[in-house]
Amino acid sequence: MQVCPLLREKKIVFIEAxxxxxxxxxxxxxxxxxxxxxxxxxxxxxxxxxxGTGIMFYSDKLREIGLDPSSLYPVVLPRPPPLSVxxxxxxxxxxxxxxxxxxxxxxxxxxxxxxxxxSSIHDQLEIHRSWWVLEYLPLPLNHQEGNRKWVAEFKYxxxxxxxxx
Length: 165
Description:
Distance between the termini: 37 Å
Radius of gyration: 19 Å
Number of domains: 2
Number of helices: 7
Strand content: 5-15%
Order of helices and strands: HHHHHHHEE
Low-confidence stretches: none
Strand order of the largest sheet: 1-2
Mean pLDDT: 75
């Protein structure tokens, strides 16, 4: 069994990232080609390669979500600057946008990011208002304070804010 080089050297760095989009994956139909969920997914996969975790991915599945496997392995290549939005607006459906933006060949990751960024938001709290009930139920929350002491308390999900500092 191979061990992640970072674990072997005990140089572990944790990145806690917050995405202001619907990253859960269940908010769009599975065969939806472009959505906001794909942006953080591509970022997380890229971070797996950068960290040398040894997680194996199917090349064809990486291509399906807009990642070029040759840009990830054996060396993670730096990303070029993002593409400009150039007056495009968020669309309820991105199919007309795709035909206008995509070249005939497979788009680059930056083009995929642009198209995904212009996809509509699928806010389940807006679509299915019954989810709001869970936002106001008190839930157990454990967190560690700066002095390394663990604190357990009940909080309402709608009022939980996390600050990184």
